[in-house]
Design a protein that fits this description.
A hairpin with a 3-residue loop joins β8 and β9. The longest helix has 31 residues, at 132-162. The chain has 371 residues and is α/β, with parallel strands linked by helices. It is 39% helix and 20% strand. Strands 2-4-1-5-6-7 form a six-stranded mixed β-sheet, sandwiched between helices.
Length: 371
Amino acid sequence: MALSIGIVGLPNVGKSTLFNALTDAGVLAANYPFATIEPNTGIVPIPDGRLEVLAGIFGSERVVPATVTFVDIAGLVKGAGEGEGLGNQFLANIREANAICHVVRGFTAESVAHVAGPGVWDSSSGNHGLDPRRDIEIIETELAIADLQTIDKRLPRVEKESTIDRSLLAQVDLMRELRAVVASGRMVSSVPGLMDAADGLSDLQLLTAKPIIYVFNLDEAALRDLPLRRQLAGLVAPAEALFLDAQIEAEMGALDEDDRRELLASVGQEEPGLHAVIRAAYRTLGLQSFLTAGDKEARAWTIRSGTTAPEAAGVIHTDFQRGFIAAEVVGYEALVEAGSWLTARARGLIRTEGKTYVMRPDDVVEFRFNL
């Protein structure tokens, strides 16, 4: 499956700078509202050191990592849900993404306008004008307004049809429940099991139903302020909260590996922002990967947690799922220790799994199938 993440936030919070850092795309990052008019898209390989190791074991001609598509969506403003600031166009772009990466401004810079307007946040440290709680609420309110419009357009029609087709009554109840949640100011994604129950309504493409990862764009001093980071994480709990300096992330692109590690250590980060965002997306969306390898290529494939072996085979090619016979599976670490597929087989490390087998994140697989 393809993984797509839409980067959203108010204007001038560092979205395009972060997008550039994540994708190394060199997209314009300007200090004025709506510097991004059309969404910029970058397809990025997901870092996976296992692939190079497998390529060495199998003599693979190439390495093919899984990928993530980042979409830099223009800054939303208050009123976007009703069309302000090209809002309808920007909100439509978000509907295509699997998850939302909400960038929240936590840096001070007099030269960079704060479009949301005046506010107060942590005034004791001089961060006047910043209010992450307010900024988050502005974006989420606009998503909710857009969703209410979507539901209110569909609900009366379904209610009318349900008077003839009683099987639609359950759908009506679910839509009313979704509307009540959105109208109350809650994100649908924050209500456990609600969208699972409303699976038949996925075509609504509700913005508030999309999983959200919050990225607080901080300056160096704030990155080292652990109490502040805990405070910010509490604003969005239980959603994922990541902390980085988008400008530092952008600067890392020109550094070698040793200098990157040194720069990250200087601000208390263990990994680049790209790695952190991807790992958070995988956790939030319930994704994992499995590996295949041979003389042609070593490759990672993205699947949902709980995917069975035939379904995983279908990710490679639909014919593989239809003609699935079995999966020969070995754990990555066990294969590396054995040094080759033949040795792993000789040691009894390779298992033959059937149609009910649920894939694990470290599986290296060879599928057997009939065409």
